[in-house]
Design a protein that fits this description.
With 92 residues, the protein is α+β, with helices and mostly antiparallel strands. It is built from three helices and four strands, in the order βααβββα. It binds FE2/S2 (inorganic) cluster.
């Protein structure tokens, strides 16, 4: 099955920062801590060239990258739930 660990990178470029990226990171970090999620890491990253559609998030699993736009704190919480459910299904 391979490594299920995923890295969620939140853009901290100027446009995303103006659009609540900081709160998106806080929400993600709180969710990971409160839900005891072990297979997702949150990182910050520089501008992803998607400024008009930020906050931008890039989900990495191995070599695969998926970009998500307009990621509010609520949206990242939903995304983390989806990733976690997907990882749980793969482990069964
Ligand atoms: S500042 Fe986030 S994509 Fe450019």
């Amino acid at each position: 099955m391979g490594d299920q660990k995923r890295i969620v990178k939140v853009c901290e470029g100027p446009a995303c920062t103006k659009n609540m990226a900081r709160y998106t990171v806080e929400r993600a970090s709180n969710d990971i801590r409160n839900k005891k999620i072990k297979d997702i890491d949150i990182q910050r990253c520089p501008c992803q060239g998607n400024c008009e559609s930020g906050p931008t998030i890039v989900v990495m699993q191995g070599e695969k990258e998926t970009r998500h736009s307009h990621m509010t704190p609520l949206e990242i919480s939903r995304l983390l739930d989806t990733i976690q459910n997907d990882n749980s299904r793969r482990k069964k």
